[in-house]
Amino acid sequence: MSDHEHHDPGFIRKYVFSVDHKVIGIQYTVTSLLFLLFGFGLMMIMRAQLAYPQGDFSFLERIFGEAGFVGGAMLPEFYNQLGAMHGTIMVFLGVVPLAVGGFGNYVMPLQIGAPDMAFPKLNMASYWVYLPGGLIMLSSFFVEGGAAQYGWTAYPPLANTQPEYLGQTLWLVGMVFLITSSLLGSVNFIVTIVQLRVKGLSFFRLPFFVWAQFITSFLLLLAFPPLEAAGVMQLMDRVAGTSFFMPDGLVIGGRPANVAGGGNPLLWQHLFWFLAHPEVYVLILPALGIVGEVIANNTRKPLWGYRSLVYSVIFLGFMSFIVWAHHMFMTGMGQTLSIFFQTTTMIISIPSVIILTALILSLWGGSIRFNVPMLFALSFLPMFGIGGLTGLPLGLAASDIQLHDTYYVIGHFHFVVAPGTLMALFAGIYYWYPKATGRMMNEMLGKLHWIGTLVFLNGVFIPMFVQGLAGVSRRLYDQTWYEHGKEVQNWTVASSWSAWLLGIAQIPFILNFFLSLRAGKKVGENPWHATTLEWAAPSPPPHGNFTSEPVVYRGPYEYSVPGDSEDYSPQFVQKA
Amino acid sequence: MSAPVIRYIDEPHPVTGVTNGKFGLWLFLASEVMLFGALFSSYILLRVGAKSWPDGWERLNVPLATANTVVLITSSVTMVMAWVGCKLNDLGKFRFYMGITVALSFVFLVIKTIEYKPKFEHYQVYFYDGATIPGYEELTTITGHLEEDDFEKDYIVFAPDKKQPSQTLPDAEGHGDHDHAEGDHDDHGHGHYADPIQINRYDIKRLTNFGPAHSNFYAIYFTMTGLHGLHVIGGIVVNLYFLLFGAGMFRSNIAQFSNRIECAGLYWHFVDLVWIFLFPSIYLL
Amino acid sequence: MGGHTVEEIKKEVRVYITVFVSLLVLSIATVLVSKLDVSMTVAVIIGMAIASLKGTLVACYFMHLISEKKAIYAVLIITVLFFAVLMALPLMDYQSNEAFTGRA
Question: Is B280 at the interface with chain C, CB within 8 A?
Answer without folding.
Answer: yes
